What we know:
The structure holds two protein chains of two kinds.
Chain A: E1 5-10, H1 15-27, E2 32-38, E3 57-63, E4 70-75, H2 80-91, E5 95-99, H3 102-117, H4 158-165, H5 170-179, H6 187-201, H7 210-229, E6 235-240, H8 244-248, H9 253-260, E7 268-274, H10 277-280, H11 293-301, H12 305-322, H13 329-345, H14 353-364, H15 369-381, H16 396-407, E8 417-422, H17 426-440, E9 446-450, H18 452-456, E10 460-465, H19 470-478, H20 485-499, H21 503-515, H22 519-535, H23 539-555, H24 563-584, H25 590-610, H26 613-628, H27 634-647, H28 652-663, H29 669-680, H30 685-689, H31 693-703, H32 706-721, H33 725-736, H34 741-746, H35 752-757, H36 759-766
Parallel strand pairs in A: 1-6, 2-5, 2-6
Antiparallel strand pairs in A: 3-4, 3-7, 8-10, 9-10
Chain B: H1 10-13, H2 15-24, H3 37-45, E1 47-48, E2 54-55, H4 63-74, E3 78-83, H5 89-101, E4 107-109, H6 116-119, E5 121-123, H7 125-131, E6 138-140, H8 142-149, E7 152-156, H9 163-166, H10 169-175, E8 177-180, E9 185-188, E10 194-200, H11 211-214, E11 217-221, H12 228-246, H13 255-270, H14 289-306, H15 313-324, H16 330-343, H17 350-359
Parallel strand pairs in B: 3-10, 3-11, 4-7, 7-10
Antiparallel strand pairs in B: 1-2, 5-6, 8-9
Amino acid sequence: MSDGVSIYGIRHHGPGCARSLLKALQAAPPECVLIEGPAGCEVLLAHVNDAQLQPPVALLSHAVEDPQRAVFHPFAVFSPEWQAMQWAVRAGVPVRFMDVPPSVTLAWQRQAKAASEDSAPSAPTTEEGDDVAAPEIGDDAARVATPDASDDVPHDPLDWLARAAGYEDGESWWNHMVEERGDGEGLFEAIAQAMTELRENAQLKTRLDAGQEAIREAHMRSVLRETRQQGYQRIAVICGAWHVPAIAAKTTAAADQRLLKGLEKLKAQTTWVPWTYRHLSMRSGYGAGIASPGWYDHLWHNGGADIRAVAWFARIAHLLREHELDCSSAHLIEASRLADTLAALRQRPAPGLDELNEATRSVICNGDDAPMRLIAERLMLGDALGSVPSSVPTVPLQRDLEAQQKRLRLKPEALSRKLDLDLRNGTDLQRSHLLHRLNLLGIGWGGQTVSGRSARGTFHEVWDLAWEPHYEVELIVASRYGHTLELAATACAVERAGKADRLPELAALIDRVLLAHLSGAVQAVAAQLEARAATDADPLALLGALPALANVYRYGNVRKTDVAQVAHLFDGMLLRAGLGLPLALADLDGEAAEAARTVVLGADRAVELRQGEAQTQAWQRALRVVALAEGGTPLLRGLGTRLLLDAGVFSTDEAAQQISLNLSAGAEPLQSAQWLDGFLNRNAAVLLHGDVVWPLIDAWICGLQDEHFMRVVPLVRRSFAQFEAADRRDLSLRVKQPAGQRAAAASVTWDAARANRALPMLRELLGIADGR
Amino acid sequence: MSTAVLRQHAEHQFAEELDAIKKVDNRQRPANWHLSPWAVVTYLMGGRLDNGFEVSAKYIGNARLMEIAVATLATDRALLLFGVPGTAKSWVSEHLAAAISGDSTLLVQGTAGTSEEQIRYGWNYAQLLANGPSEKALVASPLMQAMRLGKIARIEELTRIPADVQDSLITVLSEKTLPIPELGSEVQATRGFSVIATANNRDKGVNELSSALKRRFNTVILPVPSSEAEEISIVVKRVAELGRALELPAEPPALKEVARIVRIFRELRNGQTEDGKAKLKSPSATLSTAEVISVINNGMALAGHFGDGVLRPADMASGMLGAVVKDPVQDQVVWNEYLETVVKERSEWKDLYRAFREHA
């Protein structure tokens, strides 16, 4: 438009656009700046030059009645909009947001949800990704209708231009033409022309939200119209490149008003929240995401193409040395040479991120992927976390917590107090969920003092509650995970599961998410656990994770958790552990064998809790192989025999054969003693009260020759020394009884009438009411 | 060129293509290169030239890798092609040398017995005894030849060469010179000289490169085929060629059978099922595409000579087991786990499961 209005079509979060835009604003300062952002949120601009408002940050708008519905408008330091805002606030130029207000986008979101509700309820973690009003990139890639890959029509309109220029995709073309270039003269005219051409001629996917698109553009036009009516002459409009032709289009005010009339609205509230580069990336599911925020950050801070590559390599060198990986200056020199040659071979004026990455992999990492992953994670993605001043309004997560605290009558008090929850009671169960969720988010309002199971049965939890002021801040930080406690805790648990690298850690985590009643997270953590279980080569680690799962399975019902999935997981892990167990238990020495004994015993109890026939059989099959393995660890073979004898898998005869085989004269005495130690299993009960084992051991001891007996005595003594003193006394009593007498004693008849006479006095002594 | 030769050098076999590319190639060439870097990439990846000539693809896979390889040589750095056996390392190295220098024969085969003389230079002892050390008595290695002529030298299986012998390359690669102390002289490399070495990922343990030497190479890792379809097409093509060459009596296998075998190899190699739903353990074997081809060939031979001429699961079971289970203890567990948790669950794979089970 000629009459003092300049329309700057940008790509959201494009550093090259930001630089050119800033230059343009300085060259021709406007009287008013219009930015494609949520209308009505201009009040929050007051914070923009606050030193405590550090990007990346996001404008978060949420529905007042339903904090689950929310939209984000993230800004990084290299976002053109952010730079424009800062420039305007510094220069004292008024800024207006020209996109539709959040109340409208929230209503659209509700409509979309309602429409898709019955078809496929989306997982809570993706919730923040589908922010309908996210400022789209110049090309709006994320908002096309249904992605079907087979189609030849590109998702991204820029792909047309990229194809014409011989690039693989629109992303790398745009990077190269706009973001990685210096300050392009006439950049914005060129963008406007290209977009006009695309919108008129290119074949595009039909958009699901074409109607909404039209409404948004009508809104932008009418804001522009209003601004001019207010008497501003020179106006700068900053919007996604895609919208430039639409804003410049000649449309009557009446036509736009017709489109904007009668829109459904939800009451909305907006505030600043801290954001991260991770959430800015496409990987997080954010529609207008960019592939490498860290790279854009680098582009923003290192303008010149000449030093940009070298500075990038220098950062890589620094990172690698921090992690004790070799990287010399000579590496950097060779890497820069290769990157330059690659750029020349591909006919590009300067190496882009692709060339830099390839040179890094080839020269510095020797083709290795592991350091590249580190670079991708730490440099290309970046770990920047923004901050917001404490003066900004509250976030929905805080509101959600407040609402729940009110509903469950749990007041945050600094003074510590005890809370005893009876999980059979609905309110108490919800309180327990609330506290467990907060704990998952790292907000330790409640500490569980007594594990309910051991103290007062499975249905009690005792908590210590103490509210600390810094929890408020942590809530704001945690709000990037989600807008309600449930969503936030789920996302947090999922992220943690991705990072956990040990099986027991994951098993403990699944326990925690079940306690917190996060069905969405259970799925994700279970999937992680399953994947880890499949690749973890150590069957003992698998067995070690079983008790936690068995507990969940057994006691899950009290908490109304879904145990079928846990059972499936348990079974899979047991199967894998069983296959590898004999190998894992062969040839362990003293300490390792002791550790394995603990694990096997724990797993045995876990299998018992599982109470599944197939599982018990699989476990017993594995134990049988362990018990009968030649050359296995004697301690564990003895243990296996004992467990099978107790389970009734081994008959007395079989056990007797094993006992005499393993304790026979031909066996190494030390091994015999270890076997016996495993077999007795630190538990005298089987000797005292069972009639099976005693005669076997008895017969073995009696059958020993003198010389052999002398060699074995000290070792056997060691095993028996582990019994309780009382058990040892009873054992010695039993030894003194002649064989056969015990059986007779058990069948002695007794006089009921005489016994009854003692009962009233016993009742009195024990304090039991008479008659009961 | 005589047709009785069993296998021709790349520069002879594809002489016509090289000529055709040279005719249209008017871009800048590094000194002593026969083609421009752009043309070398075209030769490797195939494509249609401006004059309509069709260049066949030598390497099936990612063009960017070939661009990195060519750019490396253009910066006169040495190139190290890394990869598991059967990923076309030597093939790429031969074609690169043929396209850049027009000569792929300056080759040192690395073995445990490769000596320093084979890398630097040896002596003609008759001459040496008669006339003492002289230029005439010197026997140049392919590497020295390449330095003199400004061509590409190839070293195959670099990591199999003993470490002390490997280190004699360091001076050549960093100073581009090969001293001859006996004559008090040296050979300085002409422009255009470079080295392409190949090495095996799995051989790392044999003689891993010293970091000094590693630093002088740019490394390009040649991956196993990225998609199932790509791998199947490579296997089908090679199996048909080999079957013809060896005159196997069996029918070429049905695509379905090849697809199943390829899938088993891919799943075990990648450590997860093709649908990405379940993770698996990987055995210690390399499981390269070349091994898929050999399992199928083996099965075809069995089916042709001892069966009914049609490739059936039972014909492949023993070859399969041999390819997967290299370590009789650990790999057996992996294989059993795979059979029980994956093969058994696929209803249309019942025959495979039975055949493997009987063989296990």
